Amino acid sequence: MRILFILLLVNQLVWSQNTQKIKLNKTDVTVYLNQAQMSGEASFFLPKGRTQVHFTQLSSGLIGNSIQVNGLKGVAMHGMQFKQNYLENKEASLEIKSLEAQLAQLKKKKAVLEFELEGSKNALNLLLTNQKVNNDKQNLSVDELKDYALLMAEQTQELKTQQYDLSIEIETLREKIYQLNRSLSGFKADLKRPTGEIILDLETDKSQTINLALSYVVNNAGWYPSYEIRAEENAKDLQFKYKAMVYQSTGQDWENVKLRLSTGNPSLNNTQPELNPQYLTFLQQYRSQLATKNKMNAAPQLEEMVVSDAGTSRVEGYSQEITKEQLFNQVMFNLNEKYTILSAQDAQTVIIDNFKIPATFSHYAVPLVQEKVYLTAEVRDWESYDLLPGEAQIYYSGSYAGKIGIDPRTTAEELLISLGVDQAVQIERITTVNNKDKSFFGNMVKWEKGYKIKIRNQKQDAIQLKILDRIPVSRNSEISVEGVHHDAQNLDKQTGILTWEIEIDSKQELEKYFNYEIKFPKSKRLNIN
After folding, report:
1. What does the domain layout of the chain look like in residue ranges?
2. pLDDT in tens, 251-301
3. SS3 of residue 13 by DSSP
4. Whole-angstrom Cα distance, residue 62 to residue 37?
5. Does the structure show a pLDDT above 80 at 438?
6. I want to staple 429 with a disulfide (CB 3.0 to 4.6 A). Which of 79, 367, 398, 407 is the partner?
7. Integer CA distances (angstroms), 270 to 65, 262, 265, 277, 471, in order
8. What's phi and psi for 477, nearest 5 deg?
């Protein structure tokens, strides 16, 4: 029995000697749209025999089946696993260390001010005590008493003012310390989360130093595009800044790593789809409700107006050197600079490109919707810039013009970008005729409507302007739209959309017009304003 116990003890000692904990030195991060691949290196001594190597302090969001190991020269790997370690706390992050350093400085500064405040209070007490002693032991003249009283008042005021200022400073520091402690509490609570651990079961027939390279994919990380578009007066192109907003809450800081950004998405299902038969059956009829979504800062769009009964109507500067690789199903941006991106912080901006795009500039207006003229830029061959859907901040002639959404996934040959309202061009839609004659043919109403569109170009150069308006379209046999007159270049009879494409010289004022009449039964109401 004693021999068995000794053997078990020896085996346990040998097992503990053949277990190593290694910290992986993270060197590279490839950030996908909603995941990231971490790459790191480790150099360590591997004794002869079999050893369990634990790579600790990794993200708990690590995807186990994504682990890859390279550099096993002459070393056999009998197994590999990933587990979450609930016993070993995470190391303090750079953010925690920074907050603790700030907290220590603030506490020291607060202590010094409190000592100074205590000294000032003691000085004031001593001054008042000396005043009483001097008054009791000395017979002072009236003038001497006045001078002494003035001196005492000045010194008392100075000390009390000093105490007030010190109290304010101390209270401000106390509030800052409170806020820092709250932030630290949140970060330190995160330290209690489990860490990830990769375990390799290795065996070598001789002792040696081994250099391993590991890579794996983690969740809770990714990037999304953001754009900055600048246009200048009379320019022929757009200045385009392509930015990546990189975020990660993996639980591990990325310190001084080489960064790559990929437009790929490894989490997507790569299995080819299968098509199953569709079997028809009857469904219970129901009426759906469609919601409309507003577009930020986009030029207004004009839909056709259908005239029907009122009860059933419905109206429808900086750029680093970047290597760009075009891979099979993604674009990879290789950034030469190294980055530090802390876990759980706000997204960090990384500028990945800065270029000019040739564009055709024109103006666009829908005065029925908004009496404003928008400056637009039409971009062709936009597919070559590898853009992704995202939000763009617009600047025109150095001033912020707003933001728009860019969606390059559209199948249109050109990408239309709204640069916001051009205040130097005014447009006004004026009602010129609005007559309703109820005596027409007894049971019918004739409604005459006419409009005038006034445009003024206050710019120093001529502009190209596209104007849209509309004439109602009837889908009811009891309603007719007649007497249409206009000076537009085009009228789409199916939709009633009028289109003017005109050139307006500098300081010029133009007028356009259209009118029509509607006939309908007196007993009906129309959905027209």
Report:
1. 10-90+194-218, 94-191, 260-265+294-334+358-529
2. 888 989 999 999 887 765 556 666 666 555 444 433 333 233 333 345 565
3. helix
4. 9
5. no
6. 367
7. 16, 17, 10, 22, 50
8. -65, -20
pLDDT at 192: 67
Are 401 and 417 contacting, i.e. CB atoms less than 8 angstroms apart? no
| DSSP summary character for residue 382 | G
Please give the Cα distance from 303 to 238 (Å, whole number).
Answer: 29
- Fold exhibited by the domain 94-191: Helix Hairpins (1.10.287)
Residue type for position 404: I
Model confidence pLDDT, tens digit, residues 317-331: 344 677 878 777 788
Q: Which structure tokens are listed for 482?
A: 């007649």
Q: Which residue has the tokens 């003691």?
A: 122
Tokens coding 288? 């759906």
Query: Helix or strand or coil: residue 73?
Result: coil
Q: Which CATH number fits domain 10-90+194-218: 2.60.120, 1.25.10, 3.30.519, 1.20.120?
A: 2.60.120
Helix axes 142-191, 94-137, angle to 10 degrees: 160
> CA torsion angle for 332, 335, 339, 344 (degrees, to 10)?
-20
> Which pair of structure tokens corresponds to residue 317?
């500067």
For the chain, helix, strand, coil in percent to 5 are 20, 45, 35
CA 269 vs CA 87, 202, 212, 273, 468: distances in Å: 35, 33, 30, 9, 44
Find the radius of gyration of the CA atoms of the chain: 38
- Side chain identity, residue 435: N
